[in-house]
Design brief:
With 86 residues, the chain is mainly beta. It contains one helix and seven strands. A hairpin with a 2-residue loop joins strand 2 and strand 3. It is globular and about 45 Å long. The mean pLDDT is 83.
């Protein structure tokens, strides 16, 4: 549980699994939580919409990007199976 700014985390929100990047850590009522943002801010639903993510919601950290698609669900061939750098 060493998440920090810039890490890409996988978490549960309302029975959905989401992947977002940590923008900052926040101590809310003595509990660690995270403000997360999507990498496409114009189209992303993130902490600006649903608030902070609690540590207990986090499933893990994303280490590899298998593929990426654009808004039309077209495969981005430049982002296929690559490690995510810290």
């Amino acid at each position: 549980n060493n998440q920090r700014r810039g890490d890409i985390i996988v978490f549960i929100l309302k029975n959905r699994t989401l992947v977002k990047r940590i923008a900052r850590s926040i101590y809310d009522q003595n509990r660690l939580s995270f403000y997360v943002l999507g990498d496409n801010p114009e189209a992303s639903r993130d902490s600006r919409n649903f608030g902070n993510i609690k540590q207990s919601q986090i499933l893990g950290e994303a280490k590899i990007l298998l593929f990426s698609v654009d808004a039309s669900l077209n495969l981005n061939r430049q982002r296929v199976i690559q490690p995510l750098n810290r």
